[in-house]
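A common beginner's mistake is to predict each chain separately and then try to dock the pieces by hand. The better habit, illustrated here, is to supply every component at once so that their relative placement is modeled jointly.
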Amino acid sequence: MLLLGLDTATPAVTVALHDGGQPLAQLVTVDAHRHAELLAPAVARVIADAGVSRYDLTGIVAGVGPGPYTGLRVGLVTARVLGAALGIPVYGLCTLDAIAADVDAGGGDFLVATDARRRELYWARYDAAGRRTVGPEVARPADIPVAGLPSAGEGPMLYPGLFPGGLGPAFPAAATLCRVAAAALESGDPDKLLLAPEPLYLRRPDAREPGAPKRVSQ
Amino acid sequence: MTDRPLVLGIETSCDETGVGIVRGRELLADEVASSMDQHARFGGVVPEVASRAHLEAMVPVLEGAFAKAGVKPDDIDAVAVTAGPGLAGALMVGVAAAKAYAYALGKPLYGVNHLAAHVAVDQLEHGPLPASCVALLVSGGHSSLLLVPDVTGDVSSLGSTIDDAAGEAYDKVARVLGLPFPGGPPVDKAAREGRADAIRFPRAKLHDGTLDFSFAGLKTAVARWVEARKDAGEPVPVADVAASFQEAVADVLTRKAVTACREHGVTDLVIGGGVAANSRLRALAAARCESAGIRLRVPRPGLCTDNGAMVAALGAEIVARGRPPSTLALPADSSLPITEVLVP
Ligand SMILES: Nc1ncnc2c1ncn2[C@@H]1O[C@H](COP(=O)(O)OP(=O)(O)OP(=O)(O)O)[C@@H](O)[C@H]1O
Ligand SMILES: [Mg+2]
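With all components supplied together, the output reads:
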């Protein structure tokens, strides 16, 4: 197994190569506004660093968000086109689940929240076993039922007053996406855990239907 | 590198997901998926709606283009993509897709200028561009006159609209007349039944000595005229308004284009962009070029509106000239200047 993992649903552009047992190479760059420039060089770099050929890849796993749309799409179109050109499958994983997989909440429920811009957050709640029980949803920070739970993702760092117990990590790790995908593939029932590489936007595009044309004469 | 390179072109600057494949100046495939139907009820292109549609359409349109061309991905020599100008979020989908494709196939990537591609596409239909030509580019987002000594590297602006683009004026006038979006085709159609001399609408900047355009005043004049009719309780003669408006647009565009050719001692005019599909603009340009001794080149309507073949056509010319490719860090630039034909 040779998996390429990537996620662009947060300010981090994160890419990893994984053989199913361990990561072979990874690269993270945090820059919310340059996903389109950073991602392809990072993919090329990670594959070169691992000393493998792109033709040896057996699958791709991409974070499907929720996340700010433009960056998210850069990751998903890259994954889909690479998969189509190389003739390998492309899987999706909820970005909040990838963060949750790296959380150590000490055996209780916890939240993951990431920046949705426009003063809102994407969030989900997880149980002690790391299973998502609520979400993903998009909400104003004050409307999220935090209930004193520990939380991970960038959300608690942006709104420390609302989230008392901020935990790491802030961003998803591409190596974790690969690890989760590898486990799902080995379980023999990948569809139970893995998603299609479809974006989770959670909001409709902003657009209003126009009324009648405005008068131009007095 | 061969002088007839096999090039894939990807275009996502607005609402069309276009993928074209050319071999040199020969068109092999031109697949387009448009999200226009999803924008119509908003009366204009909604950027986020367009970007979402590009993501969904990209792989199917790519595969459709290869099936149509009857070539294998491995056979291509290069991947070209519109790097700008256009809608930022929409451009990024195409740029990211082009990078992934180029990287997966191990082929060079060329990020090119959308406006230069509108000019280069004419080579697919009318052969090599002459040593120097003037291009009139008229679309929903642009109205420009360009001097084109070399479409792969030497293009400069002679003039452009100071307010609305010609296509934008068509779209706004269509709304005033109760015609659907995009307004170009229905106004063009309505105009055929009307009299072009029924109403004398203003021709802004016609004698101002520049090669710039202005269409905002014309659009307002049409709206005011229509309101006056309605206020008087009289029916609006839609065909006459459409024909008279269209005459004003075509008159200014063609006069200034001929002037540009004369001022620069150029005897070839290329017209491109969505509005170049307009029947009156084509007819008037043909007549005026004929009497001015200018050779006119206008691609067929399907190649005038945004498409991937135009990007492939420009890419093929750039590859044939041996220009250095872009890097995988190629940015999308929503306001890419026309002087930058190829983005490093
Ligand atoms: N027959 C026609 N007559 C007049 N205008 C037309 C006609 N057909 C299309 N148009 C206009 O052309 C425009 C579309 O042009 P085009 O497809 O080149 O892309 P665009 O969306 O304007 O993008 P860009 O400005 O970036 O090139 C619309 O404004 C449309 O109304
Ligand atoms: Mg165009």
